[in-house]
TrEMBL record:
Source species, domain of life: Bacteria
PANTHER family on file: BLR1237 PROTEIN, TRICARBOXYLATE-BINDING PROTEIN
Pfam families: TctC
Keywords for the protein's UniProt record, in alphabetical order: Receptor, Signal
Protein name (record): Tripartite-type tricarboxylate transporter, receptor component TctC
Length: 312
């Protein structure tokens, strides 16, 4: 992060640009959600928000950098469900989610889609499951690195289908989707905030959405439950963080600005177009975010260990 500590004290915060760190590649879903809220948040705060992509290791490199940034409110992390799965997947994680960050608030919870390259043989989700069982050694499954939401969804898919596929890691699902459209990789589990455009344009095949109900903006895509795999249900919640020790006055100013952004009609409309929606204002608070993260850490530790996956 770019926090220089020269941000002065909390009372005149902000008096310089604020860096929002996205721990995945530009052009991916995390980046997309961040840029959506950065503009209205910056307006409310009276500061320029600069988005910085710090890639690597399924989002853990960027998260670690922000954990060690100056706690002055000038380095903010946008992260998602990966904050709650990393401790169960990385043996030597260099940050502790609940101890090394102040939470600002939840942002949005995004459905996932199971998508494939246009000419991948399976026609339906059921065909996909049969196909991967018969061709496990040949099928390639893209993700954004261990701990990414795409990796987690891929894990759940393989566990439910009883297969182990060849995973192809990218620095984000932005570049992964480019390769999928180009036919370089077979299929992927990725967020509607990234795949909606390519699905609607018919550039990729959409087999299912991983939510209990169909996604309004993708009405023709069946749910995994309708498709015979009810266990594959995962939505990607996102939240904002600053380093532990950031003054409460700064945390509150950021949380207030987040609430304003989530009530911004342009943000609401853009999220709806991409299959998602802002969280209610009561969830865009430090308390709600911390409680959610605490519960998610426990939930995913159990699911990951039940799937027989060890931290590495
Ligand atoms: C993920 O798979 O965690 C995200 O989709 C990665 C990204 O935002 O590129």
């Amino acid at each position: 992060g770019a926090g220089t500590g020269s941000g002065g004290n909390a009372s005149n915060y902000p008096n310089q640009n604020i860096t929002f760190v996205v721990p995945f590649s530009a052009g991916g879903p995390t980046d997309t959600v961040t840029r959506m809220i950065a503009e209205p948040m910056g307006k409310k705060l009276g500061a320029q928000i600069v988005v910085q992509n710090v890639e690597g290791a399924g989002g853990t490199v960027g998260a670690g950098e922000v954990a060690r940034a100056d706690p002055d409110g000038y380095t903010v992390l946008m992260h998602h469900i990966g904050m709650s799965t990393a401790p169960a997947l990385y043996a030597n994680l260099d940050y502790k989610p609940l101890e090394d960050f102040e939470m600002i608030g939840l942002v949005t919870e995004v459905p996932m889609t199971v998508v494939a390259r246009k000419d991948f043989p399976p026609a339906t989700f059921q065909d996909l499951v049969a196909y991967v069982k018969a061709n496990a050694d040949k099928v390639t499954l893209a993700n954004a690195g261990i701990g990414a939401a795409s990796h987690l969804c891929g894990l759940l898919f393989q566990s439910a289908a009883g297969v182990k596929l060849q995973e192809v890691p990218y620095q984000g699902t932005g570049p992964a989707l480019t390769d999928l459209v180009g036919g370089q990789v077979d299929f992927m589990c990725d967020q509607t905030t990234n795949t909606s455009g390519q699905i609607t344009a018919g550039k990729v095949k959409a087999y299912a959405v991983t939510t209990p109900e169909r996604v309004k903006s993708l009405p023709d895509v069946p749910t995994t439950t309708e498709s015979g795999m009810p266990n594959l249900q995962v939505s990607v919640w996102h939240g904002l963080y600053v380093p532990k020790g950031t003054p409460q006055e700064v945390v509150q100013k950021l949380s207030e600005a987040l609430k304003v952004a989530l009530a911004d009609q342009a943000v609401i409309d853009q999220m709806a177009k991409l299959g998602t929606a802002p969280v209610p204002a009561t969830d865009a608070t430090p308390e709600a975010h911390r409680a959610h993260l605490d519960e998610q850490l426990k939930t995913w530790a159990k699911i990951i260990s039940d799937a027989g996956v060890k931290a590495s």
